[in-house]
Hints:
The structure is a single chain. The protein is of the alpha+beta class. It is 31% helix and 19% strand. It contains eleven helices and 17 strands. It has helices spanning 40-43, 57-73, 86-92, 122-129, 149-159, 175-184, 194-201, 206-229, 236-250, 308-327, 334-347, and strands at 78-82, 104-108, 114-118, 139-143, 165-169, 188-192, 253-260, 281-290, 293-294, 297-302, 362-364, 371-375, 394-397, 400-403, 407-410, 413-417, 422-424. The strands form five sheets. The chain has a six-stranded mixed sheet, sandwiched between helices. Strands 7, 8, 9 and 10 form a four-stranded antiparallel sheet that branches. It has a three-stranded antiparallel sheet with strand order 13-16-17, with helices on both faces. Helix 5 crosses helix 6 (175-184) and helix 8 (206-229) crosses helix 9. The longest helix is centred in the middle third of the chain and has 24 residues, at 206-229. The radius of gyration is 24 Å and the shape is globular. The relative contact order is 0.14.
Amino acid sequence: MFSRRNFIKTSSAAAILALPSSGRTQQTSESACAIGPTPSPIAALPDLSAQAKPFSNDERLARIERARQLMSANKMGAIILANNATSSVYFANIRFGSSERLWALVIPAKAKPFVVCPAFEEDRARELLSTGPFAKDADILTWQEDESPFELVVNGLKDRGLAGGTVGLDENMKFIFADSIAKAGPHLRLVSALPVTAGCRTIKDPHEVDCIRLAGRATLLVYRAVYQSLREGMTTKDVRKLIQSAYEKVGFEGEASLNIGEFTASPHGSTQPQTIREGTILMLDDGCSVEGYTSDITRTFVLGKATDKMKAVFDIVHKAQSAAVSAAKPGVPLADVDAAARKVIVDAGYGPGFKYFTHRVGHGMGMDMHEWPYFVKNNMFGWDLHPVLQPKMILSDEPGIYIRDEFGVRLEDDLHTTEDGAELLTPQSPSLEEPFANIA
């Protein structure tokens, strides 16, 4: 799926016991390592799928026009999107899939687009194009298994007046594809297409913001229902079933990883079997997809009573998350937002640098759960090392403190920059013991 953190796999079994808690309902398991009937909090979840509004071809045509403007501004004659590129979905509503065979969508700045695909896949290519903005405005060039698709790409560019010049390649293109295009077209100057693809996708329109906002709401409703259904003795495998059931109820594709106790001290957790125990910290992370746009939310909480140390760490992380929101304004360097959150944590005694807050404060979000740009110094060495915030960007805001062999706390919500500041698209977690008290 869209997640970069696949759910923890475990085969351990445990009896499911009832754990009293003011925020959760009581439930008795029928057998070990089985969640039994659907818990009532999950059964009561609303179906939100009708609130999702599909994207139109007019919207995609506007994106293509913006891409062409950016191509001209960056002196690119065309961009090439190959195989499983999210950008081909963004612009043309087509995803070719991963393969050793080259599929390519080529969008010139001033000429007719074209698709390169295997000859035996021509019918499928036409079907993929039929519902998108290029249904009547794209050529399909095919190649047999003993022919070079890379020469076909280069010849397609030549036919459109691009025998030389600069052409942008999607950043995720396989090296063998990029290298072969370069050898087939030695007179082309091949560069990263990021100034065009990221240049378009980092700025969200209201429809995109609405999708991510709805995805965030769905994720929090799922998290709350799962939280209300948790019991001491459940394993990560049991919780995985709860999460799948909950996302089916709200009507979106989603998932979440769960880590427990000392395993929360590693930001992305562990594959080791884990079992819920009263009074230990739990960390739920990931999100769901609405019309191709993802949420990314983390909630850290305790079943039962948290220790004073846990509460103190939570409060520090909560303040750091708020500091990032306060620092995030149009024109502010993204590195400064990371610095604002990190200062709160370091000043509270959990430093220096990345010692306890071991990762950047956030990443761009959209059709990929991790996109450009990044809340960190040097922008993860992307094409622009020193980006500044612009209105309509969406990034995660996820500071954390990780204490090896004890526990970790991370709070993550999705931050949207406005014309004069920033907002979180979901309410901040209020506490470790009542993490969803402010969710309506």
